[in-house]
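Hey, resending since the last one bounced:
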Amino acid sequence: MEELLSLVFVLLLFPAVVGAFAWPVVLLGKILAVVLPGRSPGWRYDLLRWGAWMAAAAALILYLLGAADVAFSVNESSHGASSTPAQECRDAYPMDRLRGQEGSYLPLGFDCLLDDGSTGSSSGYFFWLNTLIAVFALTSVGLVITMGAITERRARAAHGKPLVTTADNPPDSDTCS
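The structure tokens again:
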């Protein structure tokens, strides 16, 4: 099962690498399109939608690159002489305490199995990678929620309904239950 998962991540690595190089170029192009004159009238809403897609793409690209790194480390630590324990664990703990390793794909990381039966995290960049993935994913969700709020506000304004109900301005019977 581990080998099949590693193969899947290796196959997804190529689009992730291409996306990692294309993402900043597309971002720069969009920034120039917003800054330069001649924008469309609904450019702000389009920018929110575009930003949500780009943040989601960044989260996916980072996840696939990190998952490929975990898969490569698992593969490297299970093949060859003197390959176990993995290099990530050798860097984090003394050799006499290590008994094995285990890759984790959610969250991304590499766990080192110690001689006392406990599990420790390897040193490395996985903390920062997981943090960036979460920030990009939450940014995408936040932008989608903002788009929904803008759409709701536009719909209410088009129907002439107030955005806030007060004692002087009671809600309609069709909007509240």
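DSSP finds four helices and three strands in the chain.

Sorry for the duplicate.
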